[in-house]
Amino acid sequence: MKKLMTVTIATLALVGAGAGTASAEATWSAANSTATGDQDNAAVAAVRNGWTAVVWEDDRDD
Question: The whole model's pTM is what?
Fold first, then answer.
């Protein structure tokens, strides 16, 4: 059975809204444009400056 997986990431922009409080706004982006074949072992990493990386393993030989 083939698995289909679309990985979606959210980048959070934290904006200060007064003394000691913050609000968050999420921006959603698709990490892949093709969901054919197996896409396994997905992982997402993010750093403080907002950059994100999304990786996965697939069964294609490209």
Answer: 0.46
Over 50: is that where the pLDDT of 11 sits? no
In this structure, what token pair is assigned to residue 20? 């000691």
Dihedral Cα 21, 49, 6, 42, nearest 10 deg: -110
Phi and psi dihedrals of 11, rounded to 5?
-105, 120
39 CB-contact burial (10 Å; exposed 0-12 / middle 13-18 / buried 19+):
buried
Asked if residues 11 and 45 have their Cβ atoms less than 8 Å apart, the reply is no
DSSP 8-state secondary structure symbol assigned to residue 59: S
> How high is the pLDDT of residue 2?
42
- Give 21 or 56, the one with higher predicted confidence: 56
Q: Which two tokens stand for residue 35?
A: 């969901």
